[in-house]
Amino acid sequence: MNKKLPPCPAFQHFIHGADYNPEQWIDDKSIWDKDMELMRQANCNEMSVGIFSWSTLEPREGEFDFSFLDEIIDKIHATGGKVILATPSGARPHWMADQYPEVLRVNPFGQRNGFGGRHNHCFTSPIYREKVRKINTLLAQRYGKHPAVIAWHISNEYSGECHCDLCKNAFRDFLRTKFDGSIDNLNRAYWSTFWSHTYDDFDQIDPPGPITETGIHGLNLDWHRFVTHQTMDFIKNEVAPIKEITPDLPVTINMMYEFYDLDYHKVADVIDFASWDSYPEWHNGDDAVIAEKAAFWHDLYRSLKQKPFLLMESTPSGVNWKPYNKPKRPGMDVLASIQAVAHGSDSVQYFQWRKSRGSSEKFHGAVVGHDGTADTRVFRSVQETGRILKMVDEIAGTVTDAKAAIIFDWENMWALDDCQGYANAGKKYFETCYSYHNEFWKRGIDCDIVSRHADLSKYKIVVAPMLYLTDGTAAQNLTSYIKNGGTLYATYMLGTVDENDLCHFGGIPGCGLKDVFGITAEEIDVLYPSERQHASVDGQEHELVDYCEVINLHGAKPLAVYADGWYKGLCAVSEHTFGKGLAIYQACRDSGSLKDQVFSQLLDRIGLTSNVASPLPHGVTAHSRTDGKNTYIFVENYSGADSAIVCLTTPMLNLLTGDTESTASLPPYGFGIYKTK
Ligand code: GAL
Ligand code: ZN
User: Exactly one of 238, 313, 411, 575 is catalytic; which is it?
Assistant: First the structure.
């Protein structure tokens, strides 16, 4: 079985490149020629161009000038490189904002932004959509068949929302459709008799905001859904002419870290492959912790399309927008690049190729600095990554066959954060999901990140942290997964509200999950930040923080019991056999060691093993990719101080040395890439 799924079928190799904005040097094209030479020296084979080029491409309304793109794409092609071509809608020319103010965004106070910044556009405006369609059509006609162009990069980092009248009306239509035109249906779903907030007509509904309504949780949730829906609609409008003219070229959007505004599980439907911009804050604390979080997002982007993704942006040194912009220490850039590949990326791309001379990003890391030479530590590190990617090129296109998954769900996050209850100081959804992901990461087990409605059938274990919003469809999904033999590990707050943020009646977890887990959840003790409680597993005590939920057993048996508090002796972690599977419920939040003990026993029990044969030291992890025949193992050491030796499961071919080895020997910030023989 061949399991290669290359994101860009026209170029089935690792992509090594950068965001390239050559229009900044249109008056000194000698720099373009130097760039081509440096590109070759840096072992780069791709450039992403056109990302913010609109004012160069259409300097006056309807007056198009593609000469710079013609020239640069030809130059890259002549150097042997490929191009990922962007649509320019992330920023617009001044004339457009002057002529058509409706293209600019309106804030929640009803004020329209002036011209400036980027991503400052209304996603409903018919004029903006028409302008975008026009330029995208011309780009597709002109470059769609160019042999260098391998994919489309649609806009840049879609984000934010607009409160203009066009958007308000679109929101009202979205709600009309959702509630079958019945305002009574909406009132029931929004529980609007509370505080006399009953609506008489859809036209009365405003988006939630600081000077309108914030207390109707169903409305807040629907606004988030609408922002996702309308952004997707905008993307569809961008993609339509492109697909008509270049049906074979795949499209992507560049997504982000800990991104809140859009439900990417949904947005994935309108793109052909996923890509994202990764900027971890390396060296700010334990690099193992930082690596695990970055890994979570790599895993998410791979899971979105269940195939390789592209690392669209990363910095080869530091960024310029964090409180402290530290360059990566020697070794970390290559390791962080290989991390992306280990998790399923088919590219390592940087922001940016060459540092701007002026404006806001002039001190952002780049492959080529203001000195303009190849003689820098950063350039040599990029060269090294390119050299390694060439050596392991056979891995491009291979997939990850994860047997574990975490449910991370945007709608659940929005509802959780919005709910007034538990700890309003912060629900810590990201952190909680990371803490469970870490149970797989630190053991060298591949893990997908999926939504509550995803097909779970291929997983041996699924973890559903804080799945507060559980609608009937999700509950059914979880139930049949367990019934058919899956192991589901859920936590406190499971099954509390439905898709409209209305509390489930008749005890929780709702929608039949009480029977599946053999428990009912009665109340939650919320701990103050300095407070600690404890629970014991087989006589071993563990520290608990934040939440201790009190549950009653109805068929489940305890795996852990509370060791103190007024719930001493009651169940803290339960287990219940249901159908052919296992339903585990962790009622408390622990500091880490309880999970560690429970997962060690559980993973042994269900026979889910590591990608390597020996336990991994702190900060070391292992991931795999496969083409269905060969398995590739990546072992990575995020300790900048300690070397590590890791036993492989069988003698393997070290792709970087050509030797056959049974152990991976990793210096600080070192890694190994192995192939099964
Ligand atoms: C990204 C963005 C790039 C650049 C980069 C700097 O979010 O897409 O254009 O601004 O950040 O880190
Ligand atoms: Zn708008």
Answer: 313
- Token pair 């092609």 is at which residue? 77
At residue 225, the 3 state secondary structure works out as: helix
384 is catalytic: no
| 383-406 residues labelled b (16+ CB within 10 A) or e (exposed) | bbbbebbeebeebbbbbbebbbbb
The DSSP-derived string for 356-378 is -SSSTTTTS--SB-TT-SS-SHH
Return the residue matching tokens 């004020």: 111
For residue 351, report the distance from its CA to the centre of ligand 1, in Å.
7
CB 408 within 8 A of CB 449: yes
User: Is 313 an annotated catalytic residue?
Assistant: yes
Distance 229 CA to ligand 2 centre (A): 13
Q: Does 677 score more than 90 pLDDT? A: no
Q: Which residues contact 446 (CB under 8 A, 6 or more apart)?
A: 299, 400, 401, 402, 403, 404, 440, 611, 623, 624
The residue whose CA is least distant from atom 3 of ligand 1 is: 351
Q: Is 653 in the pocket of ligand 1 (CB under 6 A)?
A: no
- For the entire predicted model, the pTM comes to 0.98
In sequence order, the 6+-apart residues with CB closer than 8 A to the CB of 420 are none
The DSSP line for 234-299 is HHHHHHHHHHHH-TTS-EE-EE-TT--SS-HHHHGGG-SS-EEE----TTSS-HHHHHHHHHHHHH
Query: Residue 530 — φ and ψ, nearest 5°?
Result: -90, -5
Element (H, E) at 142: helix 126-143
DSSP string over 532-574: -EEEEETTEEEEEEEEEEEEEESS-EEEEEE-SSTTTTSEEEE
Collapsed DSSP state (helix, strand, coil) of residue 81: coil
CB-based contact 375:38 (threshold 8 Å) = no
**Assigned token pair, 563:** 């060791």
Cβ atoms < 10 Å from Cβ of 92: 24
The answer, yes or no, to whether any atom of ligand 1 lies below 6 A from the CB of 313, is yes
For residue range 5-18, what is the model confidence (pLDDT) as tens digits?
Answer: 999 999 999 999 99
165-178 and 217-245 helices cross at what angle (nearest 10)? Answer: 100
Edge-to-edge strand ranges of the sheet holding 310-313: 254-255, 275-277, 310-313
What does the pLDDT look like over 115-154, one tens digit per residue?
999 999 999 999 999 999 999 999 999 999 999 999 999 9
